[in-house]
Design goal:
Elements: H1 3-13, E1 26-29, E2 38-42, H2 47-52, E3 57-61, H3 80-88, E4 92-95, H4 98-113, E5 120-122, E6 125-128, E7 132-133, H5 134-145, E8 151-153, E9 158-159, E10 162-168, E11 180-184, H6 188-196, E12 200-203, H7 206-210, H8 213-221, E13 227-230
Parallel strand pairs: 2-3, 2-13, 3-4, 10-11, 11-12
Antiparallel strand pairs: 1-4, 5-6, 6-10, 7-9, 8-12
Length: 242
């Protein structure tokens, strides 16, 4: 298939125009006229993935390899080292980031992974009005997201509504209308704000909440007449029990 055909298909299922202004979803490396031999989906692109893949491969990833402008290309540093390898192997790269969060990822994790009944979605945020006791919710999250521990702010024993944003969504706390907000990368000052707003936060991890991207993308791409390989990216964090 031509890269252009795949790009147009991706734009149909999750329009690139949905992405946030600060984002860089879309074609990162490649030419639309290039012939693609197979597609590899992953949360992130890494060096091993490039080296183990054939020439002519298209990588469809969640996190863009390039954010903002590049002032230089030092091939000894990241991400220029990966860009060089992609070009040398005639490989292409497309990112499906905040557009895919809105169209697929958040709702998939909320409903299919965590098993909540979605009562509404607003951009990045999914809501449910279900009632939960905190201990039962912790057990559900720990098991289904494979969390090494539960990190909680403003704990409430009885929860009457839950909101979720995968990845890093704590900056949206002012907009959240729920007893408990599930997201990743919660910072200290976000925690202080949540306590003052009488909101409960649970850090469900950036990687842990988004690692399902490749699976979802693989489902969507299987209708195309091309081989699709689903790859599990590695968590950059290692948890130690000392």
């Amino acid at each position: 298939m031509k890269l252009k055909e795949i790009y147009e298909f991706l734009n149909q299922i999750s329009p690139f125009e949905l992405q946030e202004k600060w984002d860089n979803s879309g074609l990162i490396v490649g030419r639309l006229d290039d012939e693609i031999t197979q597609i590899v989906t992953a949360l992130d692109l890494d060096e091993q993935m490039i080296e183990q893949s054939d020439e002519g491969v298209l990588f469809v990833v969640h996190h863009p390899l390039i954010f903002g402008g590049i002032s230089s290309l030092d091939f000894d540093t990241y991400p220029a080292n990966l860009i060089q390898k992609l070009i040398q192997k005639n490989q292409s790269l497309i990112a499906m980031h905040t557009n895919f969060d809105k169209s697929h990822l958040n709702r998939f994790v909320f409903e299919e992974v965590l098993g909540f009944r979605c009562s509404g979605c607003e951009e990045f945020v999914c809501y449910t009005q279900e009632e939960w006791e905190s201990d039962r919710l912790y057990a559900r999250l720990k098991k289904r997201l494979d969390l090494p521990h539960i990190k909680v702010v403003g704990e409430k024993q009885q929860i009457n509504s839950i909101a979720l944003t995968t990845g890093s969504g704590a900056s949206m706390i002012d907009e959240i209308d729920a007893d408990c907000f599930l997201t990743g990368d919660i910072k200290y000052h976000d925690a202080i704000k949540a306590i003052n707003q009488n909101k409960m936060l649970i850090d469900i991890g950036h990687y842990e909440s988004e690692r399902f991207f490749a699976e979802i993308m693989g489902r969507e791409l299987k209708v195309l007449p091309i081989l699709v390989i689903i790859t599990n990216s590695k968590n950059p964090f290692v948890y130690k029990n000392i």
